[in-house]
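Deliverable D2.4 — example input (structure tokens):
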């Protein structure tokens, strides 16, 4: 009996340069970061044009969070460079990077549960001394997230998951960042709340011009919200383009958006190994 091997899936890969920009607020070049002896990301390069939203898509464990931690100084890269607003920041302490205007909203929200909503927001403004400006920004935040104003005196630990995500984003915005890193803002939220959070992310970008680097497993929402996208697989960038073009990619549609091939053997495509070229 002759056994025929399953064919490999050929991915319609786009060029690996999604966001070349003369005015890039963030340039990451060939970074490698490790957890102990384990390489988490290898040779990753990406750019965030000023005023744009860039997304990094990838499965759980692909290295998305590691990229953000390396940019914000939580991890030091073994190789490569990170340039923010024209300055090299790799291996700087996180507090110095925050002072330069980079905000990081971590995965899992990580609010201060025993502090009130207002105190959490004020923690985001701890570097600032302009009292009038801080109060004006609090009102601006309440305009984006009215529910936070309703719960201003409640401990953050009593908020729902969606409200805590709103608070984590708002806390980062209180420092008036030039660039905001967002790590899985949809994690654990209902579809309705996910739409609300992403609508506000797009609104903040459009109204205030805050540049954003978004890592996300909800590929559909990320591609609808961002301008440029990168696909990360096992610690390396394998695909990059504008989000409009990525949404049209058959392989992105199948592997990340849940589309199915209805051809003669389409029902068996899930058994095939995708090969990025």
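Example output (designed residues):
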């Amino acid at each position: 009996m002759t056994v025929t091997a399953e064919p490999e899936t050929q991915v319609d890969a786009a060029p690996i340069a999604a966001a070349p920009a003369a005015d890039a607020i963030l340039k990451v070049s060939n970074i490698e970061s490790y957890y102990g002896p384990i390489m988490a990301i290898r040779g990753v390069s990406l750019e965030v044009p000023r005023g744009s939203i860039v997304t990094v898509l990838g499965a759980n464990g692909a290295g998305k969070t590691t990229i953000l931690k390396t940019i914000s100084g939580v991890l030091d890269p073994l190789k490569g460079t990170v340039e923010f607003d024209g300055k090299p920041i790799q291996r700087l302490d996180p507090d110095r990077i925050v002072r330069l205007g980079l905000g990081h909203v971590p995965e899992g929200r990580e609010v201060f549960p025993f502090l009130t909503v207002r105190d959490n927001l004020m923690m985001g403004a701890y570097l600032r001394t302009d009292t009038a400006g801080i109060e004006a920004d609090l009102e601006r935040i309440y305009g984006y997230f009215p529910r936070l104003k309703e719960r201003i005196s409640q401990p953050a630990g009593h908020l729902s998951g969606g409200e805590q995500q709103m608070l984590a984003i708002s806390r980062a915005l209180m420092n008036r960042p030039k660039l905001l890193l967002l790590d899985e803002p949809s994690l654990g939220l209902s579809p309705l709340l996910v739409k609300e959070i992403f609508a506000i992310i797009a609104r903040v970008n459009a109204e205030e011009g805050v540049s954003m680097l978004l890592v996300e497993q909800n590929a559909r929402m990320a591609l609808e919200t961002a301008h440029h996208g990168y696909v990360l697989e096992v610690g390396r960038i394998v695909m990059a383009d504008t989000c409009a073009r990525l949404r049209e990619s058959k392989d992105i549609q199948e592997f990340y958006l849940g589309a199915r091939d209805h051809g003669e053997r389409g029902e068996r495509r899930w058994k095939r190994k995708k090969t990025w070229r």
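The longest strand covers residues 24-35.
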